[in-house]
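Translate structure to sequence.
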């Protein structure tokens, strides 16, 4: 008789694959929360505990339960001065007390993880500085003014959370209609038909490319802190999700292009993914675009691919969520290439309905699109995206 397969995560053993998958999902949620929030801050911990208490954030495994106990313990110990939430704090204290043993175990684990994460963050800063030096050499070799030598590495954005909270619920009612595509077929002046090896790598990117052949370009959102190398690994799409540009373990990961997109002959839509880091690194600063004034003042994006410099204009900001196979949630991140006007129209209709602002997203049948995608905590499994159209 074949031996039963064991499903184990971090010392927890699960009897079924479904329980194991639930634990994996909880671990991902915990990693995302820890990356975005400082739960040692009493106000942050209390807000997080309220979201868990109200069912906005849910966990479905013993690992998740331990994490909830840990958050409750922080609230109970550090939030005593918040008298307006006394009832909730006392409830958290009771929960923490009833699960003290689990809490102590988790705190011990958390302490170890904090040390590890601190080490990773220091290492990440050092590695990112290496990239910055490489990008400085890129700037010297380039005749264009992309300000790549002004990249901010250790950027702290103190008001990031406030910006997100003040706009998270799509406060403006979106009544603007989607633009109508009348063309039957898509035909863009930016379409190309090169074969592999026919295009030469830009001289200013050769040094960066020599460091990592997964490089496909450098993304700069002008007048912001976003100015990073971008990679792509079609055979292992999420390889850089938790790895830095050098392939080392990294909480912040590296910006990467969807494996279905083509850099040599660009698809209708090029999607770049990045983590929404609490300190504003990677795509952490994108949540500022939920402020309409900021959105209006930061429209220019430069995507210097291996082969050419492309300039884009931001035309839309949207909030969505992860869609699963068994629901009808529109998956904006599945729109890669359009042949017909009807395909583009479906995309426009849906992102218009997801728009954070009450204005028509200006995209036509001749446009190439760039989409920047990241997490957003306005709801569980929330996503935020920036849509831009090519102008040069």
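Result:
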């Amino acid at each position: 008789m074949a031996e039963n397969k064991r499903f184990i995560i971090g010392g927890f053993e699960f009897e079924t694959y479904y329980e194991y998958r639930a634990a994996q999902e909880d671990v991902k949620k915990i990693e995302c929360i820890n990356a975005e929030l400082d739960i040692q801050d009493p106000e942050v911990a209390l807000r997080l505990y309220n979201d868990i208490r109200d069912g906005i954030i849910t966990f479905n495994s013993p690992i998740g339960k331990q994490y909830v106990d840990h958050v409750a313990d922080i609230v109970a110990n550090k939030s005593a001065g918040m008298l307006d939430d006394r009832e909730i704090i006392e409830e958290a204290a009771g929960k923490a007390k009833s699960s003290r043993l689990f809490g102590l175990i988790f705190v011990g684990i958390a302490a170890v993880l904090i040390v590890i994460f601190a080490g990773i963050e220091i290492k990440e800063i050092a590695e990112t500085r290496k990239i910055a030096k490489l990008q400085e050499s890129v700037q010297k070799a380039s005749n264009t003014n992309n300000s790549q030598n002004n990249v901010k590495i250790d950027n702290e954005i103190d008001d990031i959370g406030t910006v997100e909270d003040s706009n998270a619920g799509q406060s403006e009612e979106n009544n603007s209609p989607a633009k109508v595509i009348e063309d039957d077929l898509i035909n863009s002046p930016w379409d190309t038909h090169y074969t592999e090896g026919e295009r030469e790598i830009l001289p200013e990117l050769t040094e960066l490319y020599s460091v990592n052949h997964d490089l496909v370009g450098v993304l700069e959102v002008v007048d912001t802190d976003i100015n990073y190398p971008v990679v792509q690994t079609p055979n292992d799409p999420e390889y850089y999700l938790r790895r830095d540009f050098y392939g080392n373990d990294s909480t912040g990961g590296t910006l990467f292009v969807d494996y279905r997109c083509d850099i040599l002959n660009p698809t209708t839509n090029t999607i770049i993914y990045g983590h929404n880091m609490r300190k504003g690194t990677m795509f952490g600063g994108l949540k500022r675009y939920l402020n309409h004034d900021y959105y209006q003042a930061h429209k220019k994006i430069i995507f210097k691919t291996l082969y050419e410099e492309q300039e884009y204009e931001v035309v839309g900001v949207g909030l969505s969520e992860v869609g699963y196979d068994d629901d009808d949630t529109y998956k904006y991140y599945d729109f890669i290439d359009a042949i017909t006007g009807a395909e583009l129209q479906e995309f426009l209709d849906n992102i218009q309905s997801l728009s954070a602002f009450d204005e028509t997203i200006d995209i036509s049948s001749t446009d190439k699109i760039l989409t920047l995608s990241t997490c957003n905590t306005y709801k569980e499994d929330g996503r935020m995206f920036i849509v831009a159209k090519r102008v040069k």
